[in-house]
Hints:
52% of the residues lie in helices and 10% in strands. By secondary structure, the chain is mainly alpha-helical. The longest helix has 16 residues.
Amino acid sequence: MNPAIVDFYNDFHRKVQGRPGLYISGNRSLDVILPNDLLEYANAASGHSGFGSGARARGIRRESSNPEKHRADIFSSPEALERFLESSEKNADSYIATVRARHLSQSVPKQILAKDEFWNRYNKDDLTRIVAKFGRQRVQAAYNTVTIEAFEQEFMVDETAELVA
């Protein structure tokens, strides 16, 4: 028998003494939260914790007409717990991959201020030309407060360090 299963079994019996509703997630459901070393058994129905690259599987969720009895059966012995783990769809990995991909597609790129990027793209002569055309006060205010893209758009500067006439 996998020692992690025995540890989980023993851990449950220690925890349930102080938390009688442990893993009961409703009148008709059970959500057994797995320890890290047993996450390969997790199913997608249990959901995830964390977001983005930190998302991880949680456990095994089951609908049950009597979740308390179902939990008692699952944790009646290490062998019963092992049978329960083996009955899982074990589909959390593919679910977590979709959560992470969805997060990446929704991520907003970090806005870079002009003051943090200007000198990587332009030189002193470029700044002198911009100030001469638009005025020091206007350029300085934008330099300190807008993104590099907004700065370039406002002062008609392209990324090749040439002013557009």
